[in-house]
Amino acid sequence: MIARMQLLALVFLVLSLAAWWAWALPQGLDLAWAGMGVFAGMYVLGLGLPFVLMHAVNQADVAPRATLAQVLRAAVAEARWALVVFGWRQPLRSTSVPDWLPDAPTGHRGVVLVHGFLCNRGLWLSWMPLLRSRGHAYVAVNLEPVFGSIDAYASTVDDAVRRVTQATGLPPVIVAHSMGGLATRAWLRAFSADARVHRVITLGTPHGGTWLGRWSQATNGRQMQQASPWLQQLQLDEPLTRAHLFTCWYSNCDNIVFPARTAALPGARQRFVAGLAHVEMACDEQVMAECLEEMAQAN
Questions:
Q1: Residue 40: predicted pLDDT
Q2: pTM greater than the 0.90 cutoff
């Protein structure tokens, strides 16, 4: 569904820009380029405002506060990755690389990849060849309904875990970005599945909710509000030992999940990384390399 929605948005945008150019060019080249500048300005404003809010809110957070240079670098990187992920990989390439479940076990743990809000399996295209080259069977899920309850995603995660476990004979590692970490926690609660997973690695997951969630009208968006009733009940339902399964990556330049420490699940292994934006964190080569190293140690 996300692929279709983002493809329609992409087509609408391209047609709108083409229509503007066709109308404005006969009026003058300056007018045509001015319209393109307005579009670019709207993109910069829409992307930049969350960074401004993040930097202000993080002032009161216990994580090291980002420098202005780090924020600006992260904003530029996020602008690039947003175009790559939302304008190419997810709407047009999400099915280009299939799941890999080898016929015979490779001796390495398998991996389940769980994306976040407004994403699909196309988010993980950079990870897939790396996982396969290292012998890690993998399944990348699509979480639907897009705007439904996070609890509804538990069965999708369960099916992926079951498939990877059957292929490898070992409980898998789950790598989850953003809301995907909460979907994983919902699965652990729904299926009492602690023994069925070896490790959970979360990247920018709003374990404590996010300040930005206060404006969401979607069911899953409201569940990700700071201290939401859903999050509070989830924490109450979890045994104290469950957090020990988790490694949580978080950043002081995460433009979607802030304050920064809301992405650090209490009791989990914490991995702070300075200066990475939200989508960028799932695509950063160093983060991928260190996660792959943790997977290798899990065998």
A1: 85
A2: yes
DSSP code of residue 113: E
Q: Looking at residues 209-236, what average pLDDT do you find?
A: 96
Contacts 24+ apart (CB under 8 A), 284-293: 287/203, 287/249, 288/126, 288/127, 288/130, 291/175, 291/201, 292/130, 292/131, 292/134
In one-letter notation, the amino acid at residue 96 is S
**Tokens 């087509």 -> residue:** 11
CA neighbours within 13 Å on the CB side: how many for 252?
A: 21
123 in Cβ contact with 85 (< 8 Å) = yes
DSSP secondary-structure letter at 139?
A: E
What is the identity of the amino acid at 9? A
Structure tokens given for 159: 């099916």
Which of 43, 70, 44 shows the shortest CA–CA distance to 260?
Answer: 70
Which strands, in side-by-side order, build the sheet including 269-273?
Answer: 138-140, 111-114, 173-177, 199-203, 246-251, 269-273
Contact (Cβ atoms closer than 8 angstroms) between residue 149 and residue 117? no
> Per DSSP, which regions of 115-268 are E strands?
138-140, 173-177, 199-203, 246-251
The percentage of the chain sitting over the pLDDT mark of 90, rounded to a whole number, equals: 82
Q: Taking a C-beta distance cutoff of 8 angstroms, is the pair 160, 133 a contact? A: no
Q: Which helix (H) or strand (E) holds 114?
A: strand 111-114
Integer Cα distance of 154 and 190 in angstroms: 7
How many CA atoms, within 13 angstroms, populate the side-chain half-sphere of residue 111? 31
* Domains identified in the chain and CATH numbers: 1-299 (3.40.50.1820)
Exposed (0-12), middle (13-18) or buried (19+): which is 255, by Cβ within 10 Å? buried
